[in-house]
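Hey, can you fold this?
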Amino acid sequence: MDKYKTFFRLVFSLTFILLFSSCSNNSEPFAEDEKNSQVRFPKITAQLDWVAEPEHGGFYQAEALGYFTEEGLEVEIIQGGANAYVHQKVASNTAQFGQSGSLSAILAISRGLPLVNVAAVFQDDPAVLMMHEENPISSFEDLDGETLMARP
């Protein structure tokens, strides 16, 4: 358990330090906490793509166990939903981080939104192609000329 805690702290700390040190217009982006001489980072908003689900567990676990606070981070986690507009909120700096599907993030970037992918929640994208069991399609070649439905 300790190795996961250490890894989680390291990844979040490095990510936040890199992003805020390179993106800030302020020459002094960090403030010194006079009580305990700990560097305090600016407030961070993380916009989730949907309401709380298992894949969001790392954010909530870090918050519940005080990992953000221990690292000097003030993080607000905002649940998503049908109209979360994750890409737009990050592009407009309403949120500094956002969770989104890999395909939609790549499409948003290709359309000119000033976004950068910094991490993957899953090692492999869990997107799947589903059909009814009785469907005669058994290969990609069988899809030629067929109509598919996909979320945008």
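Oh, and this one too while you're at it.
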Amino acid sequence: MAVSDADIAFVQDLFAPLGDITTRKMMGGLSIYCRGRIFAMLSGAGRLYLKSKGDFDRELAAAGGELFTYN
């Protein structure tokens, strides 16, 4: 399933408080940037992945987040 215009609008609204949010469709999904730096991806299936490390990585894991992997 490809990312729709409604998905893009949702992402832009969700992350609007961060500031300058841009997106780019890639391989059926969506790359999400803040001030030109990628920080998240939205899969074509609607799953959101956040880039993380350190304390934020541990917070996401504690909240039930899963590590992104691919085969």
